[in-house]
Design goal:
It is an enzyme of class 2 (transferase). It is found in: Cell membrane. This is Phosphate regulon sensor protein PhoR. With 426 residues, the protein is α+β, with helices and mostly antiparallel strands. 53% of the residues lie in helices and 19% in strands. It has 13 helices and 13 strands. The chain has a five-stranded antiparallel beta sheet, with helices on both faces. A hairpin with a 1-residue loop joins strand 3 and strand 4. The longest helix has 36 residues.
Length: 426
Amino acid sequence: MQQVAWQREFFRILVVVGLGVALGWSSGHAIWGLILGLLTAQVMAFRAMASLYRWSYRQGPPPQDSGLIGYSVDKLIRREKNLKNKLAQQAIQLQRYNQGIESLHDGVVIIGQEGYITNFNGSASRLLGLRREDSGQHITNLIRNPRFTRYFNEGDYNSSLQFDVSHRKQFSLQIQITQFGLDQKVMLVKDITERKRVETMRQNFIADVSHELRTPLTVINGYLEMLDDMELPPSLQKAITQMNGQGLRMKSLVNDLIELSKLESANTEQLGDWFNLQQLGYSVVDQLQAYSANRITFKCTQAIEIQGFSDEMSSVLTNLLTNAIKYGGEDKIEFSIRSGFDGVKVSISDHGAGIPAQHISRLTERFYRVDDSRESTVGGSGLGLAIVKHALEHHDTVLDIESTLGKGSTFSFIISSERSRVMEKD
């Protein structure tokens, strides 16, 4: 087709020029006839190009030409038609995608790289209280929650965030942000109000049962201790001793359940107060030194303060040191607090048997035991590390566990520089 267009274009020029030459030849001016033919061919081409120019701006019909311009016009018309069909198909697909996103029960918010909202569905409008005119607004201007602002600005979206919002009604939301392309983020908003209500009921039930068990257990343990001090037959004495030990273990379990319930139901929006971590470390070590047979070595050369909850941090240190005493063998237990560029690192190391790698990720689960037979001999509720996990969450940090079989384990966490400071010596 393209070759035919070129042939027609050349043929038309040759015909026009030939007619001009023939006309000039007949009058004795062949050169002028050639010039006239060339000018005529140029004018015809110029008119065709002018027609093409007007058509390109939709100011006239497409040029009727059998040469290259006519071929180009036909090619453009076919391409435009194909492009319109593709755009129509993409518009239908985009409409289906939008309808699918709109039908989701979870909220979807499309955010630019700088944090400005570009689009959102109806569920996001319902859960976050967004309005159509909010498009183009920065997401942190519309979700005014300190934890969300910190989560969004930090840019670490490997984990989700949970918080409560109030507009028209109370919602408990779970938010997960994912990078989309090079310059966009997708924020998924899940309504977990009902799940949190059920979780709260479960926590309240455990707390209520634990409180109710505390009184009868105290009475039973009191009588068992009294019987244990009496002169009894050996067979009965052994039974009383075992009952007393299991009663104390149950009492410890109830106390841990109550403490865990308090941690789970605590207000995580508060940052707490500043307290001296160095002094707290010395206090916990003093309380456990006799129990550990003086195996704990504590190293903290600076007076360090952190912002948080001293009773919860005391529970963290007590549980970690107690575990090290139970499972760390007979060697020294190294407890250190030191300040670094990224915050304050607290670590507790033992030289015990170590923990198999497949168990490390589950150690902070409630009642999870690496070795049930060993746990029954050393006692414990199986809730210590679960308590540690929740208490550290209130300090915006997580427990890091490193262990090598036959060499021991290290439990550590880092309090960020925003929540820690080194006190100057007087």
